[in-house]
């Protein structure tokens, strides 16, 4: 009788899973870079006093947060090329992940900005600082460090959402495991390895976020 888990077969397929894991990590890191950057821009635009700017941004954020990520991926993959914008499946997936999580990051940033004591803004006004210098030198240094744990949670969540990329033909690690399973009729080993890889990398990401939070506290990243 064949063993439930064949270690020799697991070692044999590990390089193929490792190559696909690189795609997963790449999509996560680049997607998160888009999310934290675009999210900050959206958060700042939503706080602009001009309603013709803040209102559409608020609608966009709520729309993205209220629609499934998979639907957004399909839209970017199948509809966007009809407008003349051509991207690779991986680039499309990174954009979809980034835009989707940017909407959530924007709300996290907004909570951090609104938690900055009003006296700090009044002091900046008294010093005749420009809005740009007030935002960059006073508000953001106090608003961002406390929300790092929440942003880290979205990093882990994005990493676990990368299997959705297989819907737009990206061969990430879970899709690679299914390809191996369909070719060998053994699913236990590839799926188990994928689960372990996701667990290890998620724990590593959480540890990295905690270290970053501790570093920010050490260098004055608290209010």
Automatic annotation (TrEMBL):
One Pfam assignment: BPD_transp_1
Organism: Bordetella petrii
Protein name: Ectoine/hydroxyectoine ABC transporter permease subunit EhuD
Ranges where the ABC transmembrane type-1 domain occurs: 17-209
Gene: ehuD
Membrane-spanning ranges: 20-45, 57-80, 191-209
UniProt-listed PANTHER family: L-CYSTINE TRANSPORT SYSTEM PERMEASE PROTEIN TCYL (PTHR30614:SF0), MEMBRANE COMPONENT OF AMINO ACID ABC TRANSPORTER (PTHR30614)
Main location: membrane
Localization per Swiss-Prot or TrEMBL: Cell inner membrane; Cell membrane
Keyword hit for Disulfide bond: no
Membrane topology: Multi-pass membrane protein
CDD domains (UniProt xref): TM_PBP2 (cd06261)
UniProt keyword annotation of Cell cycle present: no
Assigned protein family: Belongs to the binding-protein-dependent transport system permease family. HisMQ subfamily.
Keyword terms: Amino-acid transport, Cell membrane, Membrane, Transmembrane, Transmembrane helix, Transport
Source taxonomy: Bacteria, Pseudomonadati, Pseudomonadota, Betaproteobacteria, Burkholderiales
